[in-house]
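Quick question about two entries, pasted in order.
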Amino acid sequence: MSLLRGLRVVEVAQYVAAPLAGTLLAELGAEVIKIEPPTGDAYRGTMPVAPGVGRFFVPLNRGKRSVVLDLKSERGREDLRTLLGTAAIVIHNSPPVRAESFGLGWEELHAAVPALVMGVVTSFGPEGELAGAPAYDLVAQARAGLLTAHASPGDSVPVRAGGIPVADLTAGFLLVGGVLAALVRAKEDGVGTRIEISLLAAALAAQIQDLVWLPGETGQGDPVATTSDLAGRAQEIAEGLATNPYYRCYETSDGFLAVACLNLAQRQAFANLFELDDPTIEAPDVIPDDPGLVERKRAMTRMVVERMAREGIAVWRDRLAQLGIPVGPVQARERVSTDPQITANGFLARVEQPGLGQVMMLGRLFGFESSGAPLGPAPELGADTESVLAEVGAR
């Protein structure tokens, strides 16, 4: 059975983070009703691949029902109130003032439906001078320092790594955990909770292992990044690549290979294979203060690079795997749909999408009993308005 069967989620959200949370809840078996304005979620028009169908909209909204409500009208807000009275969870990403005007203010809603769980995505969190200010993923990554987590020599400005909306996606994943935890409490004592995840917090969370400052390390002055910060990060990354042979990608004779020696036993096995005499093997990520030792590490890494280039992926994969070293080919994102490991687990699936036909997209992420039920497509705008409102007695 579906884990969340019989659970109704009302999603009043657009773009990425909150809709992603709704899609994940739908995958777990919840009935997710997506409330859209008459013009539809703005993401329907982003990278259009057919009239009214955006390439990004489809995977972020699969398996939902679309209900069109004009929340600027009293009739629309009344219909929303009726729907919320039948729901266990409501998700939205509206700023506080707009949320209040739509009838999504927490105090009023909590009084009307005490057990209702509310999941909210905001930009910068509930406190501070930016509370309530709008933002998108790029601005959140910028504020959190995530845009300077990676840089290449010659970069003139910071860019999102791969163009991936890390703050949006992380916020969506975090929100699912939050609302399900709140749902457990609501089932126990009938009291709903408002859970908020901000894009800023999500962008920080994506850097959890890096955002650690020992006493005296936090620095002083304006945190705004400059060209020198970008150049410094690029140099730091380049130096790390040139001096650490254990955790990196290599070019072989027929493609790129990722090698991941994260613990000492794996590094020692790797060092023995390549006959490396490495005095820094216990902490290879640390750049030594001794210039001679730095050069020694560079020479050692260059030697491994040269040897790896002489043979192909299959040879090195087998050789390293026999030593217990995690290893795998670097695959082009545009072609991972042909990877047998991905297809064997159903991580990508074909979905019959109205207006497009069979579309391959991200499939099942969660593994559990009866999790193989077919994925539903993203809904056409307003396709379920009349049926849903009739079900709850609003029409």
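Here is the second entry:
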Amino acid sequence: MNIQAIPTPSLGDTTYVVSHGNATIVVDPQRDIERFLESAEGSTITHVAETHIHNDYVSGGRDLALREGADLVLPAGSGVGFAFVPAFHDEEIKGEAGLSIRPLHTPGHTPEHMSYLVLLDGRPYAVFTGGSLLVGSAGRSDLLGIEFARQLAILQFGSLERLAELPDEIGVFPTHGPGSFCSATPTTDQASSTIGREKAENPLYRFSNAEAFADSQLAGLLPYPSYYREMAPINRSDPTAIARTGVRELQPDEGAELMGEVSILDGRPRQDFAAGHLPGSVGIELGDSFAPWAGWLLPFNAAVVLVLNPDQSAEDAVIELARIGFTEVRGVMRGVIAWSDSGRPLVAHQAVTADDLKRRLATGDDVQVVDVRDPQEWRDGHIEGSIHRYVPDLRSGIGELDPD
């Protein structure tokens, strides 16, 4: 059996392409399905399996299955509005070339959640755990609302116990990993593990009862992106696949005409943004955290104009945004020099080093320090006298800051 892990670093997620002979199973694909088709080239995709209704991206599973004539496998309780093969606990789904899938009901991250034990010629080989057992952690239980979080955390304890009954040598391949907001506590940097290693090293296996486990899971939860609430309804009704497309390049006059209709999303490096950017634009570097922060800081599926340097891929940015439901990219402006040369204004701010700030504070300069890191980073340590305001909360005001 060959297991290809295809990561999506900006979401902290991994899709798996599992092959043996001429048969392939794809687990938890995002909506840009071409990369999974390329990985499976030369074999037949017989099954596309979704572990749960995803909250952090739009799925490509339905359209991938339709395109390939494959069976779409979803948890029996998923409640989607299109055809699928229902996965029931411990009812084996036969594949081809000796591959088969044994669903294991592992609620906790979501109520319907299934893990998929893949067997080769009847022998268990690997378990794809989605948002249940993660490497060094487990999926968070509050994404459906804090009122359901404790009971789901208690169910998650039982799910981890269920998975622990598998043989120690079984490989563990979770969907969520480093960088994902779907983890209740930080995961390790490893993408995969084994049942035996997790039982020995995952701190969550040290809890002997569900209540203590739930206490630990709920104690350190961090905020998660606001766009999450839009994903499950899309994934239950009409999750469409997308392909790479060209992006229209805009001249300053064209960009100016769109101002007021669009959100300006500047993906250049932060130093470039500081040196000069379009008024009202939001700066999020195009990189591993681009998509979730864009989804958190912009209105959902806002019409967008990108600002990128010539060496940055507008197509990559469009795909990143489309994965989380942003499909209205009107075009890209290449840098801001042409904008400035046309006589239009830029906004700039000075970037200072930690040493610069230390000197200003030591000399009694009248400066306010706003710490915009996440709550756990703030608790771990912060500059004395600083004001904490997590980046997403800045939109609702800056409260105690002196506007002068």
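Reply: The first helix runs from residue 34 to 39. The chain has 13 helices and 20 strands. Hope that helps.
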